[in-house]
From TrEMBL:
Record field: transmembrane: none
InterPro entries given in the database record: KH_dom-like_a/b, OsmC/Ohr_fam, OsmC/Ohrsf
SUPFAM superfamilies: OsmC-like
Pfam families reported for this sequence: OsmC
Designated name of the protein: Osmotically inducible protein OsmC
Organism: Chryseobacterium luteum
Amino acid sequence: MAVTVKASLGKTKYYTEVTAGENKIITDEPIDKGGQNKGFNPLEILAASLASCTAATLRMYIERKEWDVENISVEVELENFPLTKRAVFKRDISFEGILDDEQIKRLHTIADACPVHKILTNDIEILTKFS
């Protein structure tokens, strides 16, 4: 499954409109980097992709199993180390509901099966062209 997004940046420093179909989000850079902090920065978007995909994947599984979980909270911290070309995602998942140890263990496996997690842990290739 392919998705297409388009980012458009005019003369307003770093204020970028990103569209996917009929949906739109705003990205920006923090004030200390010359932006206006009017939206998520690109690294926050990357971390948000993992967090939201994990939550949705877990919710789908929990609903299929009919487990009693009111809320799923996924917090992702992304630390980037450009000099070593390494990035570390720290993912903290918590639930409001009644789950036993075996269910929690299974949900850990399901979290690792989220599509964004799979993409980030596989080989990644970026093909660029200028039009």
